[in-house]
Design a protein that fits this description.
The complex is a heterotrimer of chains A (269), B (278) and C (277). Chain B has 278 residues and is α/β, with parallel strands linked by helices. Chain B has helices spanning 46-53, 76-84, 101-106, 115-119, 125-137, 153-166, 183-200, 211-217, 240-247, 252-268, and strands spanning 2-10, 21-30, 35-39, 61-66, 69-70, 86-89, 171-175, 204-207, 220-225, 228-233. Chain B is built from 10 helices and 10 strands. In chain B, 45% of the residues are buried. In chain C, 75% of the residues lie in helices and 0% in strands. Chain C is mainly alpha-helical and 277 residues long. Chain C has 10 helices and no strands. Chain C has one domain (80-276): MetI-like (MetI-like fold). Classes of the chains: A mainly alpha (269), B alpha/beta (278), C mainly alpha (277).
Chain lengths: 269, 278, 277
Amino acid sequence: MNHARQYPRHWRRPPQIITDRRWRRILPLAILAYLILALGSLEIDGARLIEGLERGARFAHGFLQPDFTSRWGDIRQGLIESLTMTLTATVVGILVSVPIGIGAARNLVPRPIYLVCRSIIAVSRSLQEIIIAIFLVAMFGFGPFAGFVTLAFASIGFLAKLLADDIEEIDASQAEAIRATGASWWQLIHYAVQPQVMPRLLGLSLYRLDINFRESAVIGIVGAGGIGATLNTAIDRYEYDSAGAILLIVIAIVMLAEYASSYLRKTLQ
Amino acid sequence: MLSIDRLSKTYGTQGGASGDTALNNVTFQVPQGQVLGLIGPSGAGKSTLIRCINRLVEPSSGTIRLGETDLAAVRGRDLRRARRRIGMIFQEYALVERLTVMENVLSGRLGYVPFWCSFTRRFPGHDIENAYRLLDRVGLLDHADKRADALSGGQRQRVGIARALSQEPELLLVDEPTASLDPRTSRQIMRLISEICRERELPAIVNIHDVPLAQQFMHRIVGLRRGEMVFDGAPDDLDDAMLTEIYGAEDWTAMRQEHEDDTTAEQDTRLQLAGGAG
Amino acid sequence: MSKLAPRVGEPTHYSRIWTFRTPRARLALWFGWLALVALFVWCWQLMNEGTMWMFVADAPRQAADIGSRLFPPKLGYLPELLAPLWDTLNIATLGTLGGVIMAVPVAFLAARNTTPSATLIRPVALLVIVTSRSINSLIWALLLVAIIGPGLLAGIVAIALRSIGFVGKLLYEAIEETDARQIEAVAATGARSSQVIHYGIVPQVLPAFWGISVFRWDINIRESTILGLVGAGGIGMKLQSSIDTLAWSQVATILLVILATVVVSEAISARMRRALI
């Protein structure tokens, strides 16, 4: 043992993420420059903000003392539209996404079908619900039907993608075993694929039901029906107490749906 | 000198009489420099006992005296002051995996430095110097800037020892130090702990499930069974009848057989401590 | 003779019927499906009470009409989109920054192992998270435009408010999943609770924190492109005005720009997450 040895009295933590010296110098400067530029392009109107404070207080007040009654007819109609739209769109979405999901699984289908199905998924996923809704409202006219088509289309991208990824990850040896018995393609799907992905598909469907309800509250803003339209009207009329009531209902339903779907997913597994 | 007097701990319903009794009227003293081994089957209350001493577990009744302080009664700032006088070495190391070895050793000084000091990682010079000395003592001087999760099990446990020692403790609590190590490394770690206790005249309580290892390295052994002390004496007094009483049906003879095999294997490759764990 | 006679104890007859489920379970399953179909039909009728089927039937013609107007996209419109695109990036980035800054304390208050009070403060923190999560950023924007007026600021605040719930939820789950032994070990050295958090918890959740933040930034880029539809600034404002004037070729250009932005931000976030973890 060398107890007489001298030990350093200073220690610096070695850099963990960015080890290059130059980058360590440049990066903070670049971030600072960006922040200055970005904050500089904000045009803040002080007078408008002060007015906003007062309106914000009114909104907070409306949120704390929500008015469910005076617009109850509209709220009820919006809720019915949202809920029915959510359910039908999810069901149709699942029905359509199962064949597309199977078609988009590389290990099950020939290449041309795979490419077609994957591009349908890509289109559905890259466009946001609200943009799809704008087009569909222009096509189908205002109302929940356009919303239903929007949500169904969006569900297809979501469910088919995850389903296809799931199928591609299934245990290949189980599929081999079934194939070795001389099973046809349909039998292969039924005996090797379905049992492996079914629980996940159920879970995903419930999750999507949840998402579709949240989205149904949004697409109404562009005229696709549902509670979002009611909310938009309430805010346009500055009826913050009605808007507060609608938001509280939305929050309550979302919480309920989330709780119920996580409970269901747990019991199903 | 540590003295524990009628220490009891009941888990479960708060304040109620019902609940699991983990410790029941445990009383003993540990004089300066003594390495005391705590043995017993799992669930005997070994872990609870040493966690009561530094109050990671709240004792239900009794006193724990370290020097002038009653550890069972302190709270708030006094509790933190008391804790920094007690070094603890954990089962499975319990290092902060994503910090460097040096930061882990320096974290032993947290009770001594103000928040801003630890926040900016600017520890006083003598703390850093001491940390390097301890790392040298446990044979890890070259690993100071590595992340803890890059080390092997034996090396991590040495960092754990260095962290405990950097507190400049008056008492060492050691919880199953070899539980996840291979037999050879286990012996090296136990030897290191007992050497350090000898060098510094440190009393230590070592919670250990491996009876032969305990008999080899401990000065004194306390046997616990269902929260009660059933044995207190020298390692040599621990005979088969006593072990059966402590462990019941558990097959400790197999444990001893294994130990003898390991010892003969070890004699072939007598390693020095440093750099051995690889 | 005796060889042919069945031995005692050996079954002589095997059932030829094998079913996957018991009759009762099958009945319940069929009933469940029937109920689902009935529910679907009922919802369908309720939903389509006011639907003008004439318009729906007309949809293919409308689609063809819009489609023909979308092409070719008006590329000359691109330079006009640069400033709104910059605004959109700022909404997403500053909004994420604000959201993350607010989410960190909320997450520590909501995590079971760091909350100062599990009965009083934790429910409040969880309520904040749930509220922020259940309201879409477009609705937040709608509210904020009404309150603080149209413009970038409303967009930034909307994105920030929506991000609190997302980041807060994932972060508090990460905090609850930390290794308790590492924290215990830091506490055992006599560290005060701020030091326990800084040395025991922060290093464990830091990778998750960066991952979550970058992930949310990616989502926020996507969401901030449309906030302009309700007046909260960015490229969505151009989209809204182009739709209002039925300038479909401009709409096509804007959609292409949005698509490109989303793809690029996704690539950046994937690379950053790989580098950080």
